[in-house]
């Protein structure tokens, strides 16, 4: 109980404490059955209690005066639109008679709300891209905290919740909601998580929500880059695969060409053998022509006709013999060119083998990069 004689000192003390109480406070003094003094903090006020209003005898202050004792009561949200805690202390005169009451009205804050201004500024700066933290009651945004890097100017204290707001969904469902939004809503991709806060004494009654909005621009850019990288690697892998097939075909063709050159070389050697055979025939024919000439001379007049034939045989023999060096020179030239082509073909064959091998290694590396890109994309999706 408080003495009425200390009323002015009490008012002075209450005014000093007015804005020092977290969440705000409303002080009311009732004398007899009328409100004669009120002081509200900047954070909290109620329009229904005004100086000159009459006291409801069934209110907590009326009960405290009747019972001449201090009473405390929790007022449900349904009565004034928010949860309240009211303390009523009787005022007595010198004789101890109750002549009034001091009523102290607090908004009943959830523990998270009481500590919001302490933890929110620190938490909002703990994310690389910043964060926006907010808290609502069942109808509007009550607290907000932006970071240096990220803010949501449209979400102000007093903003009324509407259908489609994540906090409204949390209140309706009474459970946590987490959604990932594209840049159309907040200007950048963002991850939004909103939690329900329940009454400390009634775990089934939701009284507020706590939300955090984290921009995800880096993760979004990373996903886009990963997708582009994966697409680019797939294109390169496809081109490399075609190149590998082409290199395999070139290698096969080079092998066929090399085999064909070997056959040409063998044919050249066979031509040389034929040339030797022609030379031998020419030598034999020349000997036959020479012998025929000798025999014609012995035969005298009767062998003249045979002499003409012998001379013709020797002439053909000489022509055949003269042709052999030309054939040999030609075949030697063919063989030389073929040998040169063979050397180049063998070099090309070795290079095509190396190309095919290198292409296979590149293909394997591309496949590994593609796998890494897919893993990178999975990581980005989790950010």
TrEMBL record:
The answer on whether this UniProt entry bears the keyword rRNA-binding reads no
Which Pfam families does this UniProt record tie to the protein? MCPsignal (PF00015)
Q: Name one GO biological process term.
A: signal transduction
Spans of biased composition, class Low complexity? 346-361
Q: List all Basic and acidic residues biased stretches.
A: 335-345
Asked if the keyword Phosphoprotein belongs to this entry, the reply reads no
Recite the UniProt keywords alphabetically.
Transducer
Q: Give the highest taxon in the source lineage.
A: Bacteria
Show the GO cellular component annotation of the record.
Answer: membrane
Against PROSITE patterns, the record matches this protein to: CHEMOTAXIS_TRANSDUC_2
Q: Which residues form the signal peptide?
A: none
Q: Where is this region: Disordered?
A: 335-362
Q: Which residues cross the membrane?
A: none
Checking InterPro entries in the record gives: MCPsignal_dom
| Record domain Methyl-accepting transducer: where | 261-383
Q: Which PANTHER family match?
A: LYSOZYME-LIKE PROTEIN-RELATED, METHYL-ACCEPTING CHEMOTAXIS PROTEIN MCPB
Q: What is this protein called?
A: Methyl-accepting chemotaxis protein
- Protein species of origin: Clostridium autoethanogenum
Source taxonomy lineage? Bacteria, Bacillati, Bacillota, Clostridia, Eubacteriales
């Amino acid at each position: 109980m408080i003495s009425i004689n200390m009323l002015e000192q009490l008012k002075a003390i209450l005014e000093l404490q007015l804005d020092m109480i977290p969440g705000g406070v409303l002080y009311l003094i009732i004398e007899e059955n009328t409100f004669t003094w009120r002081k509200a903090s900047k954070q909290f006020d109620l329009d229904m209690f005004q100086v000159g209003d009459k006291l409801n005898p069934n209110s907590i202050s009326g009960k405290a005066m009747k019972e001449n004792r201090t009473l405390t009561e929790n007022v449900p949200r349904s009565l004034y639109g928010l949860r309240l805690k009211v303390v009523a202390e009787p005022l007595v005169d010198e004789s101890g008679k109750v002549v009034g009451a001091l009523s102290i009205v607090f908004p009943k804050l959830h523990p998270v709300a009481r500590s919001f201004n302490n933890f929110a500024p620190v938490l909002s700066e703990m994310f690389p891209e910043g964060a926006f933290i907010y808290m609502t009651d069942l109808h509007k945004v009550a607290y907000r905290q932006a970071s240096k890097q990220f803010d949501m100017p449209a979400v102000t204290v007093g903003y009324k919740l509407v259908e489609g707001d994540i906090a409204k969904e949390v209140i309706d469902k009474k459970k946590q909601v987490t959604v990932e939004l594209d840049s159309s809503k907040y200007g950048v991709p963002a991850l939004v998580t909103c939690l329900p806060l329940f009454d400390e004494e009634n775990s089934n009654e939701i009284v507020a929500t706590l939300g955090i909005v984290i921009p995800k621009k880096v993760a979004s850019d990373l996903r886009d880059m990963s997708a582009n990288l994966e697409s680019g690697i797939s294109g390169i892998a496809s081109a490399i695969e075609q190149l590998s097939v082409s290199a395999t075909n070139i290698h096969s063709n080079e092998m066929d060409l090399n085999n064909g050159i070997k056959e040409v070389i063998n044919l050249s050697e066979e031509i040389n053998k034929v040339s030797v055979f022609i030379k031998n025939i020419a030598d034999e024919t020349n000997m036959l022509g020479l012998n025929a000439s000798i025999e014609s001379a012995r035969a005298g007049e009767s062998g003249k006709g045979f002499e003409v034939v012998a001379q013709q045989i020797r002439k053909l023999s000489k022509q055949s013999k003269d042709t052999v060096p030309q054939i040999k020179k030609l075949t030697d030239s063919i063989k030389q060119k073929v040998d040169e082509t063979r050397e180049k073909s063998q070099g090309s064959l070795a290079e095509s083998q190396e190309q095919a091998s290198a292409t296979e290694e590149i293909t394997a590396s591309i496949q590994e990069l593609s796998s890494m890109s897919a893993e990178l994309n999975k990581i980005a999706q989790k950010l």
